[in-house]
Amino acid sequence: MMAAAAARPTLALLASASASLGAGRRAWARLAVSSSSSAGSALPRLRGRRSVASAAGGAVMGKAGPGAVDADAGMNTVQRRLMFEDECILVDEQDNVIGHESKYNCHLMEKIEAGHVLHRAFSVFLFNSKYELLLQQRSATKVTFPLVWTNTCCSHPLYRESELIEENCVGVRNAAQRKLFDELGIVADELPVDQFIPLGRMLYKAPSDGKWGEHELDYLLFMVRDVKLNPNPEEVADVKYMNRDELKELLRKADAGEDGVKLSPWFRLVVDNFLMGWWDHVEQGTLHEAADMETIHKL
Question: Is the pTM of this model over 0.85?
Answer without folding.
Answer: no
